[in-house]
Amino acid sequence: MSYRIQENVFDKFFKHRESLIRQFKKGDISKREFIEEHYAFIERLNLKPFQRIDSFEKGIYNYQYYNMLAKYSYMKAKDPKLIQKHPAIAKKLLEDADGYYRQKDKSALRLLEYLEFKNVEAYFVKVHSNNLKDKLFEIVLKDYENVVFHSKSPWLMECLKEEGVWLEEKKRSVIESYINERY
């Protein structure tokens, strides 16, 4: 019984995520709006991350959960008005974002382990940002449509190399317009 409830939550989550991706690709929403709407939807779902990753859906949900919290916290922390009026809050939001990014990377690894690193490839991506150049890499799950992870984590990169899925080349991101748009 509870499995069917989770399945409905996953159906809602993936349908909403795909809708946002389509809207972004068409130019109907900006990256900032994508992040704000995705964050608000996750909050409305009121579903915390899963402790055990025993399905693809749970792994993706955990990754997206932490990724959106990280991006949202980072976006809010960079608000000039907040920085000026409440620098301590802005600093706390940056610290929160860093913590969420660490959890996102752990979630990515847990899902990759569950999938046994099958049909996965990872590589550095070509980016416009000097801060991300030779740091941001992409992990593509080739068996799934629209499933791509990004990270700057050296320890995660080492795991990918150890598993033999790291490519020693720089490629264009499969979601280039998204990663290169500022928010």
Written as H for each helix and E for each strand, in order along the chain, the element string is HHHHHEEEHEH
Largest sheet: 4 strands, mixed
How many DSSP helices?
7
Class by helix and strand content?
alpha+beta
Share of residues in strands: 5-15%
Order of strands, widest sheet: 3-2-1-4
What is the CA–CA distance across the termini?
41 Å
Percent of residues in helices comes to 55-70%
Number of domains: 1
Average of the residue pLDDT scores: 89
Total beta strands: 4
Unreliable stretches (pLDDT < 50, length at least 5) are 1-5
Instruction: State the shape.
Output: globular
What is the radius of gyration computed over CA atoms, rounded to a whole number of angstroms? 17 Å
Outline of the structure:
By secondary structure, the chain is an alpha+beta fold.
Explain what this protein looks like in three dimensions:
The protein has 183 residues and is of the alpha+beta class. It contains seven helices and four strands; from the N terminus they run αααααβββαβα. The protein has a four-stranded mixed sheet. A hairpin with a 6-residue loop joins strand 2 and strand 3. The radius of gyration is 17 Å and the shape is globular. InterPro entries: DUF6648.
What characteristics describe this protein?
single chain; 183 residues; alpha+beta; 4-stranded mixed β-sheet; 7 helices; disordered N terminus
What's the arrangement of secondary structure elements?
Elements: H1 2-26, H2 31-45, H3 56-77, H4 80-85, H5 87-114, E1 120-125, E2 137-141, E3 148-151, H6 154-162, E4 166-171, H7 176-179
Parallel strand pairs: 1-4
Antiparallel strand pairs: 1-2, 2-3
